[in-house]
Structure formats: C-alpha cells, structure tokens
Amino acid sequence: MNPHLQLTDLAVRYPCPEGEVCVINRLSLQLERGEIGCLLGASGCGKTTILRAIAGFEPLHSGQIQLDGRLLSTPQQSVAPEKRNVGMMFQDYALFPHLSVAGNVAFGLKALGRQARQQRVLEMLELVGLADLAKRYPHELSGGQQQRVALARALAPSPELLLLDEPFSNLDVDTRERLAFEVRDILKQAGLTAILVTHNQAEAFAIADRIGVMQQGNVVQWDSPYQLYNHPANDFVADFIRREALLDQRASALARGEV
Ligand SMILES: Nc1ncnc2c1ncn2[C@@H]1O[C@H](COP(=O)(O)OP(=O)(O)OP(=O)(O)O)[C@@H](O)[C@H]1O
Ligand SMILES: [Mg+2]
C-alpha cells in the first residue's frame, strides 16, 4: 500500500538577485495514514517552505507530492490549494476578531446547511475542550484558548491532511507542553495525518510518530523519536539532539537552583 503522504525528491527555488536560490533540495519523506510527522530545524532551513509546497502555494522545481495516491504537485502540474483538501494552521494563526469562537470555526463550513454546520462547530469545540466558550470573541480568550480555536477551525472541514506551522510559538513553556500533548490526543482521536513544524525538540518528541531533522533545505534523518534519539544518522543529528538535551538539563538544574 502507498503511504498516505509522499514527497519525492522535492526541490523548491526562490528568485533572488543572482537568479534563483535552492531552498529545498531533493527532499523525500512519507507518512502513513493517521501518523503525525514533525519537522525540526533551525530558523531559515526551509520548514515553512515545505508546508507551503504541500499546501500548493509554492511551485516545484523538481520532484512530486502525492496524497492518498493522488498527484498534487509536479513541476508541470499543480492542483489548486482549495482543491487539495489540506487544512492549515500557520505561524500567525490569526482568528477573525469580528467573529465569535463559533463563527471562526464555522468559517470554512459554508458548503454545509445551517444545522449541519452548527452540529460540526459544536463537535469541534468539544474536541478542543472549548464548547462553553462558543459565544466569546477572540480578544476575550487566552493565547492557548485562541490557539485551540485556530486548531478547531483547521479541523472543521475534515481535511485529509493537516499542516501546523509552529502552532504553539506564542505560548509560555508550560502551556506549550500541555497543549502539545493535548493536540496529539486530538489529532489521534480524529485519525488525522498531520505535519507539524517546530523549533522545539521537546515538542517534537511529545507529539510526533516521525521526526525529520532538517539542515539547509534537506531532511538529514526522517525517523521515529526512538531511533533519532538512540541511533542518530550522523554527527549533525547527534549534536542537534544532544545540544537541546543539554539545554533542557541546564534549564531543569536552573529551576532547581543548582546552577
Ligand atoms: N518568498 C521568498 N522569496 C525568497 N526567499 C524566501 C522566500 N520565502 C522564504 N525565503 C527564504 O527561504 C529560506 C527558508 O525559509 P522558510 O520560511 O521555509 O524557513 P523556516 O525553516 O520556516 O524558518 P523559521 O523557523 O524562521 O520560520 C530562508 O532563507 C528564507 O529567507
Ligand atoms: Mg517558518
């Protein structure tokens, strides 16, 4: 059986004064249905670009993207973003300020009749634990609550694939960790295939079935958290994992007043 999502030899280039610069270079990865993948890497290494390519906002220089056996992108052809059935929650997850929580979640459900739409909104708000806040407006919510509304909005149209670009970036460390575990439960309950981007290793290990460690436009290792931790493919991955683990230890030691 084919993987649910398959990226093969992907290359994406951006125009620059010297001509073109290759931002993603011969990148391949795949996810089975219901799996959560996580892209981990330094700022500027190409994480958002990959999500934009999957969503259909960046043309491919070479390679292809397939979802459920359907060809979405090649350099010659590209299915329009709105026809891909891919849900997105991007770095700036901005909610519509003039719409209530329920209104925000209902936004992508215009094709449904009134009753079906209300039913779906309620289901989604229950899923993210916000059913009692349906009538509030975004400015009346905490950052974590707003992020959960954004997640409910992305989940509501039942996308085939969900893309999450640093969904917890605006939150404090404790809320991030709690939400990371919550989001994993929510995605697993919905049986969704998803790719999440983060800078944060703890978050990746909390959420992902597969993690891709990125270095300058490529995934240097695409593996389970266990394999990545215990069998890093090369020195770059080993250093990357060890450095963050050391920082975590230092943070814990600081918190205990030992440093
Ligand atoms: N529209 C564009 N035109 C030209 N270069 C771009 C464009 N968008 C992004 N880039 C460049 O491509 C590279 C990858 O950018 P991308 O946004 O994918 O990185 P990222 O890994 O998501 O970074 P961050 O963690 O900071 O969000 C960067 O060097 C960036 O400057
Ligand atoms: Mg980014």
Number of strands: 10
> Percent helix among the residues?
25-40%
State the secondary-structure class: alpha/beta
The strand line-up of the biggest sheet is 6-7-8-3-9-10
Describe the overall structure.
It is a single chain. The chain has 259 residues and is α/β, with parallel strands linked by helices. It has a domain of 65 residues. Helix content is 36%, strand content 26%. Strands 6-7-8-3-9-10 form a six-stranded mixed β-sheet, with helices on both faces. A hairpin with a 2-residue loop joins strand 4 and strand 5. It is globular and about 55 Å long. The model has no long low-confidence stretch (mean pLDDT 89). The structure holds adenosine-5'-triphosphate and magnesium ion. The site of magnesium ion has 4 residues, from helix 1.
Condensed summary:
This protein is an alpha/beta fold and 259 residues long.
Give a quick set of tags describing it.
6-stranded mixed beta sheet; 4-stranded antiparallel beta sheet; 8 helices; alpha/beta; binds magnesium ion; 259 residues
